[in-house]
Amino acid sequence: MPAYEHVFLARQDLAQAQVDALAENATSIIEAQGGKVTKVESWGLRNLAYKIAKNRKAHYVMLNIDGPAGVVAELERQTQINEDVIRFMTVRVDELESGPSAMMRKNERDRERRGERGDRGDRPDRGDRGDRGDRGPRRDREEASDGE
Questions:
Q1: 62 has which bridge partners?
Q2: Domain range spanning residue 76?
Q3: How far apart are CA 145 and CA 148, in angstroms?
Q4: Are strands 3-11 and 36-52 parallel, antiparallel or unpaired?
Q5: Burial of 61 from C-beta contacts in 10 A (0-12 / 13-18 / 19+)
Q6: 17 vs 110, residue with greater confidence
């Protein structure tokens, strides 16, 4: 049977439980048509490149589908009707990935990097900066405006 990857974007104001319910609904549609879902990945709430229907963020969910083309047609028809889904895309692939998708591997890599750096983010450690001399007294605003 053909293999497909179906990714949909859900509105930002939905709770994670509602997004999971959308994924379950899609899974039930696929299974009712004779297909099967081999993997469901929730990529979380992510920023969009541009506003879509007044949303700056969206919940991303990917489904790996194994089934005939009629399954995808019905899934897309049902997805278009749903007001909570702002965008979706289905792509036919030669074979489905068995492990985590590229997005999930990227999230894990980012988490590991943040752990190595600590809470400071990507700023390098500057040390005590003892090589700098004293800056001297600061000028008040009144003094600065008198001279100009």
A1: 7, 41
A2: 3-92
A3: 5
A4: unpaired
A5: buried
A6: 17
Beta bridge partners of 88: 8
Between CA 82 and CA 75 the distance in angstroms is: 11
Q: Which helix (H) or strand (E) holds 59?
A: strand 55-66
Residue 128: per-residue pLDDT:
65
Indicate whether 111 pLDDT > 80.
no
Q: What is the CA radius of gyration of the chain?
A: 25
With respect to residue 131, please indicate whether it lies within any of the assigned structural domains: no
Write out the two tokens for 130: 């003892």
Tokens describing residue 119 = 């809470």
138 belongs to a structural domain: no
Residue 36 in domain: yes
Give Cα 69 to chain centroid, integer Å: 27
If one counts every other C-beta atom within 10 angstroms of the C-beta of residue 5, the result is 18
Alpha helices in 9-123 (DSSP H): 16-32, 69-81, 102-117
Give the C-alpha separation, 122 to 114, whole Å: 8
Distances (CA, A) of 129 to 21, 125, 132: 54, 10, 6
Distance of CA 96 to the CA centre of its chain: 20
